[in-house]
Amino acid sequence: MRIIIAILLLLSSLPLTNAQDKEKWKRVITFDESVVDLNVSQVSFGEGDIARVKFRTTFSKLVPIRGGGSYKVLVEAMDFRCQERLYRLAEETFFDKKGTVIPMSGTSVSAEWKQVKSQGTMERLLAPACDLIKEKRQYH
Questions:
Q1: Please, which residues have CB within 8 angstroms of residue 19's CB and are 6 or more apart in sequence?
Q2: Cα distance between residue 79 and residue 113, in whole Å
Q3: Closest CA to 58 of 91, 16, 29
Q4: Residue 67: pLDDT above 90?
Q5: Is 138 helix (H, G, I), strand (E, B) or coil?
Q6: Does 3 score more than 70 pLDDT?
């Protein structure tokens, strides 16, 4: 009987493991009050040399939202043109402390490409993002 229970417990945990493996995050920056992780399981390729990756910023304290409320986690999908050191924000998703999506309007998503500035935060995100893009592009 114990063997059957052990097998059932093992089998019931397999779907959870697969669900957790869908998104794998790697720490790329640690600040005093937040950390930034890169989703290493997903890269989307667009036209030409454009590729999209996701970053997750988790704050140690709740961040107030103009108009009320607060968020704990911000997931940003960013497009990169690595050779030219260009980026643009494609999507923003805000999550409260329970992990529930917070509907937002008027976010800073833009079709305009921006140059990565030396010694800024985006430069610290550019290298791991472009390394991941290069690695995934080999299999694309």
A1: none
A2: 9
A3: 29
A4: no
A5: coil
A6: no
Looking at residue 107, its pLDDT comes to 66
From CA 75, how far away is CA 56, in angstroms rounded? 4
What single-letter amino acid sits at 78? M
Name the E strands within the chain: 25-30, 34-39, 44-45, 51-64, 70-81, 86-95, 101-102, 114-115
Structural domain contains residue 73: yes
Distance CA 140, CA 135 (A): 9
Which residues, 6 or more positions from 79, have their beta carbon under 8 angstroms from its beta carbon? Answer: 46, 50, 51, 52, 87, 88, 90
> pLDDT, tens digit, for every residue of 74-113?
999 999 999 999 999 999 999 999 999 998 876 677 789 9
Q: Which two tokens stand for residue 112?
A: 């305009």
Contacts of 62 (CB under 8 A, 6+ apart): 70, 71, 72, 97
Read off the CATH number of the domain in which 125 is found.
2.40.128.710
Residue identified by tokens 């704050």 is 59
Task: Identify whether 10 is part of a domain.
Answer: no
As a whole number of angstroms, the distance between CA 68 and CA 2 comes to 53
Look up the domain containing 100 and give its range.
Answer: 23-137
